[in-house]
């Protein structure tokens, strides 16, 4: 069994709601964390991110002025002087699948839908600590690999070019039907 | 601690992308322990959360007060982007927090209100009753929560308001397929 030494981790929590910050602080401290920095908006969080260099960022999505999505995008700047690789856990009341996709495309590492639970938060932290994913840089994306599963049999149009399996053009069902007539 | 030095970062270039790997910068916080030495941090955290629960009623009252104030401002002076955003954030916070605070039915009503704010094509044209019924329902659920017989009524109220709101949204978005798709898509949060 593996155990996380939370007292060696530095957290940055960003949420405009003071009650949620209190809950997060309580959970993290009871896991054993000592260093938990708090910001109530994205702009303050970005400043604190540069100043304190946290190991893990936990952020809400919906916040005034500068939201959690923008915070993730600002952190994931490959040329920045700061650390663009820190795990970002987005904790949000948004619970639609399309929101997960948008967060993923902004470079968020893990998504945790509210209501928050101690177990859900612990599992997300354990995942980013024990199973970090490589980063991918394309013309339009910089962030953790969005593919969590390796499927070497996949030959579809979304396979990245230049890997062992090049894109193969598959005949459409209509073409197959026509050719069989 | 979280950042490796540049020399530890390995970049492999492909035709359309780069794959960047580095030694796990957080590996030092992982420690192998015997099963017998493994405490349960989740149980500890749940206990800590339970010790906070005495404050949840007051916190919920604060959240509901914020929602009411946001809507009063709109009723008095109309919708602006700032007032719309404040109403949405207040409802959205209740959607996310209310179940943790012990008011799951209020979370359901707040979710329904969020959907109206997010997907109605013109908020000025939304019947005022749709807003007031949602806000009054949240108020009632929070005030009556301690009564056991009110719990099933709260859940039923939440379900009915959601049905009314969804019917309205389906009707006003009949020519907006992207909104219809979002309205009809299932939540990623498992049902209780």
UniProtKB/TrEMBL annotation, chain A:
InterPro entries: CheY-like_superfamily (IPR011006), Sig_transdc_resp-reg_receiver (IPR001789), ST_Response_Regulator (IPR052048). PROSITE patterns: RESPONSE_REGULATORY (PS50110). CDD domains: REC_hyHK_CKI1_RcsC-like (cd17546). GO terms for biological process: phosphorelay signal transduction system. Keywords: Phosphoprotein. Coiled coil: none annotated. SUPFAM superfamilies: CheY-like (SSF52172). The modification 4-aspartylphosphate is found at residue 60. The keyword Nucleus does not apply. Signal peptide: none annotated. Residues 10-129 form the Response regulatory domain. This is Chemotaxis protein CheY. It comes from Bradyrhizobium nanningense.
């Amino acid at each position: 069994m593996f155990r996380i030494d939370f007292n060696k981790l530095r957290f940055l929590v960003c949420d405009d709601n003071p009650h949620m910050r209190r809950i997060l602080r309580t959970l993290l401290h009871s896991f054993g964390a000592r260093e938990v920095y708090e910001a109530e908006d994205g702009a303050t969080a970005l400043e604190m991110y540069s100043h304190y260099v946290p190991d893990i960022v936990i952020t809400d999505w919906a916040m005034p002025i500068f939201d959690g999505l923008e915070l993730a995008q600002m952190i994931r700047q490959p040329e920045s002087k700061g650390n663009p690789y820190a795990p970002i856990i987005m904790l949000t009341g948004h619970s639609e699948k399309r929101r997960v996709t948008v967060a993923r495309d902004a470079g968020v590492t893990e998504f945790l839908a509210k209501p928050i639970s101690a177990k859900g938060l612990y599992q997300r932290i354990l995942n980013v600590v024990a199973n970090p994913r490589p980063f991918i840089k394309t013309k339009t994306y910089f962030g953790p690999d969005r593919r969590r599963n390796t499927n070497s049999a996949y030959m579809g149009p979304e396979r990245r070019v230049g890997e062992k399996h090049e894109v193969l053009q598959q005949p459409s069902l209509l073409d197959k039907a026509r050719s069989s007539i | 601690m979280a950042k490796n030095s540049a020399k530890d970062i390995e970049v492999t270039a492909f035709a359309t992308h780069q794959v960047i790997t580095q030694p796990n910068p957080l590996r030092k916080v992982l420690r192998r322990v015997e099963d017998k030495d493994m405490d349960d941090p989740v149980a500890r955290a749940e206990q800590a959360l339970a010790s906070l629960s005495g404050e949840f009623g007051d916190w919920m009252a604060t959240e509901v007060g914020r929602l009411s104030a946001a809507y009063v401002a709109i009723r008095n002076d109309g919708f602006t982007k700032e007032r719309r955003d404040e109403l949405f954030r207040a409802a959205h916070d209740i959607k996310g927090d209310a179940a943790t605070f012990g008011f799951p039915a209020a979370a359901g009503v707040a979710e329904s209100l969020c959907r109206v704010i997010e997907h109605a094509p013109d908020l000025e044209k939304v019947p005022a009753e749709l807003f007031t019924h949602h806000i009054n329902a949240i108020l009632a659920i929070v005030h009556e929560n301690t009564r056991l017989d009110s719990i099933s009524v709260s859940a039923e109220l939440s379900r009915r308001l959601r049905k009314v709101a969804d019917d309205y949204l389906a009707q006003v978005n009949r020519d907006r397929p992207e909104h219809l798709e979002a309205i009809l898509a299932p939540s990623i949060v498992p049902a209780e």
